[in-house]
Design goal:
The complex is a heterodimer of chains A (370) and B (964). By secondary structure, chain A is of the alpha+beta class. Chain A has helices spanning 2-14, 16-24, 51-78, 96-101, 140-144, 148-151, 155-159, 181-184, 215-221, 232-235, 264-270, 332-366, and strands at 81-85, 110-118, 126-132, 170-171, 174-175, 190-196, 202-204, 278-285, 298-306, 317-323. Classes of the chains: A alpha+beta (370), B alpha+beta (964).
Chain lengths: 370, 964
Amino acid sequence: MMASGYSAKEEDGHLPGASGAAGSGVAKSKKPDNTAFKQQRLPAWQPILTAGTVLPAFFVIGLIFIPIGIGLYVTSNNIKEFEIDYTGADMSSPCFNCSQSSSWNSTWPCRCSIAFTLDQPFESNVFMYYGLSNFYQNHRRYVKSRDDSQLNGDKSSLKNPSKECEPYRTSDNKPIAPCGAIANSLFNDTLELFYIDPNGTRTQIPLMKKGIAWWTDKHVKFRNPGGTNLNLSTVFQGTAKPVNWHKSVYELDADLENNGFINEDFIVWMRTAALPTFRKLYRIIQKKSNMTPTLPRGNYTLDITYNYPVLSFEGRKRMILSTISWMGGKNPFLGLAYITVGSVCFFLGVVLLIIHHKYGNRNNSADIPN
Amino acid sequence: DNVIRSYKYSALTFLPLSLFEQFQRIANIYFLCIVVLQFQSIPAISTLPWYTTMIPLLTVLSVRGFKDLADDLARRHSDSQINRQPCDLLTNESFTSVQWKDVCVGDVLRLHKDQTADLLLLTTTEPHSLCYIETSDIDETNLKIRQALAVTHQELSSDPIEPSLLAFDCEEPNSHLHSFKGVLEWRDMRHLLDTGHILLRGTVLRNTRVAYGLTIYTLDSKILQNCGQTAVKTTQVERTLNKVVVGIVLLVLLFALLLAVGAGIFEARVAPGIEALAELGGRYTPVYKVFLTFWGYIILLSPSMPMSLYIRFELVHVIHSLFIGWDLDLYDGGVDVPAHARSTTLNEELGQVRYLLSDKTGTLTENRLIFRQCCVAGVLYPLDLSWNPFSCGGLQFSDKRLVDTLRKPGSPDVREFFKALALCHTVMAEWKDQAASPDEETLVGAARELGWVFLSRTRDSMTLSELGHRRQYQLLALLDFTSQRRRMSVLRDPEGELKLYCKGADIVILERLRKDSTYCESTEKALEQVFSQGCLRTLCVAVRSVQEGLWEEWSRALELAAMTTGASDDLYDNMERELTLLGVTAIEDQLQVGVPETIATLRQAGIKVWVLTGDKKTAVNVGFACRLLDPGTRLLQGEELVEFEEQPELGKRFIALSRQCQAVLCCRTTPSQKAGVVQLIRKYTSSITMAIGDGANDVNMIKAHIGVGLNGLEGGQAVQNADFSLAKFHFLRKLLLVHGRWSYRRISVFLRYFLYKTSSFAFVHVWFAFCNGFSGQPMYETWFITLYTVLYTSFPVQCLAVFEQQDVSAEGSLRWPSLYQLGVGRQLFNPRLLAGTFLYSIYTSLVLFFLPLSVFCFSAIDFQTFSITVATASVFTSTTETGYWTMFNVAAIVFSMSMYFLATLILHSPLLHTIAPADFYFLAFQNAFASPLVWLTVLLTTCTAVLPSLAARALLLVLNPPDT
């Protein structure tokens, strides 16, 4: 500090070199520039903000948020949603037996069916979800237990999966494909939906299993090793199936476009949920014609191939049917939240207005000494 | 060897040294530990990959490193400029030009202007080997006389380049600029050396063609020994900030501990039921898992530590300092000097000053002296401006009676008075503009105008023209003026009579007068009533006839004292007694422009103004003149100050008393007492003190706390030691009320906001822990955490710190000085407000997490989309919190947001994912931002998060409307 001060002082004039250089030119005035930036007079909008302009802002926010909230709320209310718990934890449930017997290594699939009634017809496309609760898909150990390179079609990762996959990395000295805990715990219940005519005939409702994954996931993030044209069974030769799976990854679907790592059920499962209780898209029921609703009013049965054990962690399994709107599925909270925040803004505006009228003017004159 | 090396680094040492210095900061150490933890092979600990901490840390380290490097290169450049200057060195009977760096101790140099080292003056080309040096870089007086020893002068002046056998012995190198002891051995004779024979480095030869000197100290020279002693000043805000940082570390530890406990419960109760989790964690015991979770959360919460805060803090300080230098209102066109912030670390304290300690002469006054009146032989010759035949302009004083008295023969008192003025001084006849003291210059000038013209001086004689008659006086002794002493000259006049002339402050002279001194009463009356009323500066002039015997005895004693101890004050006292009063001079020192108004404004602002000055009567009158004093103000004298230093409890009581006082005037203080007063205030109050002065006698005071130096007439010494330099006292008003207030406000807002932004963003992890089994899962993508502080949110907060002037404009700040109380009362950066900031950041983090949670629990949205939603809301919340919207703020916000979207787009690109799927595993940009639900949630979350601050701001606006 002092040392630099000393040398700076030396440069000020006493050094022959420095003074010579300064003396040669015309002595430049040290007067600062008169610019808005340097004089700190940049144009700004804040000073014109007074109580008269700030208070309306609160009303404006309120007046924008409340209609948005009402709109969202109405939209949400128009969305039809049906939810049924098929865990079978209850003695009375048709799936009670299945739930008690199911475990990861049970070989015989257990089947059960649950009847339900839709009171209102579901127009337009209907999304079918499965829901799990208490399943910590966002637990850090779980989230990390995957190999994105392997899933991306990297051949060396296929044979030699990442250490992150431990202890689901190898099985019988063969690399597991797909490795890791997430893949291993793939949701493997099969859900089928039947419409019961008033005359008693069961009609299976066609469920679309493609189009449920994100485009980027299906085409970028997940790729089968060796491209799409090869025979998947040869590609995956020398790998083991995840220990909990009943079939290999290349046997997930007959459709080559939906098999292996790019099986959409698999992709959806691999996109981990944010919260311990979550739902995932399972199937899409497409609208057939304009005349009939996608799911008419009436009785239905849900046929379940019950494989997935949840009772060990007190989990619940649900099937959800929902129509969708521009804002997605049914979401009563968002609309209410908008209405609440909008009302709070409005209320604050009123309070501030009262304060302004009661105290503002008085302080205006008292606070500033002349 | 005389190579100056003020630079610190070489190519090899730069990296290790710079890193060593930087890791002295606790924050950097903390982050280094985090990085080390992250590099640990235990995957359970490194909740975030290494680059999340490494990249910001490297950024901070490299910015800092480059700054240090640039400073060091500048030092190197200046060093080499100094080192490469030429000088003439005696080698083999002739002088050759060498560079400064090659000079060694014992070398004989030929000097023209600058001194490269501390030198022993051997001889000069001037008569009697006199030489004159300008010492304005070292102390107060400008020109000083140095003289070679008679013996070297005589031996060497005939043939200056003859090398001789010289031996000298001197004291160890030290930093005392005004003392030197040494012995020169020359042909078996010992000659004592003192400071009068020494040319110090940093002084400049004047009025002397060539001087020859022997090098005594090179790198040990006294001025270099004086360098590098200033302690680095830190501000109160910075000290509070350091405490806050420690507080954050503790808070992070606490959170990590609680979350680790939660993890223990989860691992014991829930995890065993979930097959995958049970299998994954099977290797570890629950206690070990808890331990790992603790460290995992330490890492995860580490972004709440504002790593880059210190470096940004510095940057903001530098910009604020530049603003001070750029201010046209602080620029003095007369002397072409803008204000200058020499220290760039103290800006916000300018807005918190409670005590202003000011010097009087040259600070409150112009220090342009005008001889107004005199009182000779009890007769007062008052001011009369109507008649002025002298064209010089320096003398505005004139009185017909006085001129008449002077011309009339037989008025010895008056003549003696002016003779004394013409003789008792150290002014150089040839250097009218460079007198040692402005007072003396004025007095000699006055004597000249009235007929006593000082013509020339040699080493031992002075020549006057007395009303046209040329007379030469033999100079026997000349005692320099110091702040504690007076000036004395002993002369032998042409008739052979010995006389002692003495001049000094009234109190000093009056107590040394002969008992039967005449005119004493009338002079004192003049002093009391007339001079002090007019704010005039007075000096008493006295004479004593000295007996030949007394002189011989005294001069021998003086010589003896100089040989042995050097302490000769008692001897001086012995000589300076039995004086006869000749008269009193009165010099007017006008108040600077705007001083009363400035002091009045500062007092309205709640600043307690203390004036510390060397004299008394004048000080009081100046105090009244500049509206410092009201009737009934307390006066404090130097003698009383000594007591405070001796008795600590008295000092405490004094400060307690002075808190009740609006203004304090300390009279008759010495420079060290001035510093003592500053120390006293700092010791017993926690208030910010500012000292302002212009001369070398104020340096101690200025060094004590925030120092302001005025570019005055008394040399650059005060400015060299000050933190801020101004051209005029009244600039202080804008410096404090506008720049200081703004700096304090901006820095407080900036720091609080910075803490808010980092902690609100990091605390989200705490709430998320409750939903993910306390597993240490990060809420955000790791790249987002890495770039959040560095890229996404840094520019708006930086702009806030530079442009914020939300509440009152510059004019408003000056019009309502009471607004300054904001900083004095620490109303913007105190524990209470910081606690509020933390509560608000916790509120924000709650909103940032739980609002999206509540929205998304009804939908099939995945973790990555959820994460992007929270991250976007977090960026929006952090960037829009600006109250003062200049175009730079808007640009910064637009830039930050575009950077966020651009960077996210790139980091989520399919290409990067294909290259390194493990590092770029987020691939959610397209889907997330295509969803209206995400946007609606971001809008709702952002609005809810900023609503309290918006409402608080509106409330303030409603209660205190800004007036433009």
